[in-house]
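Researcher: Structure for this, please.
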Amino acid sequence: MIVYYKFSHLSGEFDGTIIVTPISSWLLYSLNRDQRRQSSNTRLELCLCPADSGTLAHTLQAMGQDEGMYQQYIPLALHLAEDHFLLHQSRDVQLLIACCIADVLRVYAPEAPYKDPEQVKTIFLFLIKQLSGLKDPKDPAFKRYFYLLENLAYVKSFNMCFELEDCQEIFCALFSLMFKIVNDEHSGKVKSFMLDVLCPLITEADVVSNELLDIILMNIVEPNKSQRKNAYLLAKELVVKCSGLPQPGQKADMKYGECIKGVMKYWECIKGVMKYGECIKGVNEIWGMYQGCHGTVRQFFNHVLILGKEDKALGICGKVYDLIYELNHICPSVLLSVLPQLEVKLKSSQDQERLGAVALLARMFSEKDSHLALHHQQLWRAFLGRFNDITVAIRIKCVQYSMHFLLNHPELRKDITETLKLRQHDGEENVRYEVVMAIVTTARRDFEVVSDSEDLLEFVKERTLDKKVCNFE
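Model: Predicted structure, token format:
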């Protein structure tokens, strides 16, 4: 049985009475006495014991914001955040303190009793440390770790850190921990609460540091994508959820459908002046800029792609094209204002920059079910221009992807056939060879695609007269 030691309201001295009752004003009175601080620490540790429903932890859990008595708990709330408890040698005491502080943040939200910036930072770093206990769902104390996570998610407690100058340091520590500990043993509910803790720190932030973006985005590219599946899935869900687009069974906060209807009415009035696809593209760009993480991602890519301001300390800077490819699969809307920036790379004076952009776009444009060429026609035209690039390696790369376009995109065959017509007369033998191989490989996979095109058959026929390229299997 848990006991509380009753102290006199007058003298503050122990009067010999031992009672079992929820924490109340007599304990708060004793906690205000600096000269008895050490003894009050001992008494509070007893109150934290989880074996009884009358403990401090249970009292705070049951407390709501509408209870008029909660203001009396401010001295206790401050006392809980002292080093004696935050640095306590007992793992169990630290966990219970974390749960109590989380309840304090809930009860006092949105105005927590902690005002000193350094203290706030210390408290949240302490809470992050405690959340590491989530890594093992088989831990006997896991229910309390889960309670801590649920409480922090429900109240959006970490949003309090926005007021701190070094809030990004706290957020980086939190995100790093979540990606590190998430695993197969976690239930969908645990992962959902993880997302509920993390998402507001992106969507409601004025600024998201590149360091934090790096922590998130590195999990969706190789090798992490394959080696850390759970971290990848968490990062993927985070990107989707932060995009602002509706989830399955969920309505969008901003009525995108109504926005499209309005555009269609507008387009009816300006037919012949603007193409419908361009009109929709403009709306999508506005929509994208409105959403939370779009601006952050756009700014990041703008610095790396356009301004060339790569931060060598950020691993993701060396994987920008891989990142764009993965984001296009995860949440294409995030790239609405990013993909047009690639046109700059296609026209770069640096061969390697053009080759990298060509390889990425060839892969993205040619994939089955891709609608990028339709939605980004100007970028598509810029890409087709690279079939005539001054650099042989780039012309070869373009021609090598022709087979995928011919097989996957009937609507693009005319454009591809026109470019191959020029390349079959290329001055470089290797380019002419790749033209023939692209057509032959296409025929092997789907003969009708080639047989239905007189031009493609004619290209192969012409090249059989080319002594340098006719020796193919």
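Researcher: Any notable elements?
Model: Confidence is low (pLDDT under 50) at residues 1-46, 49-54, 246-256, 285-292. The CA atoms of residues 443 and 449 lie 7 Å apart.
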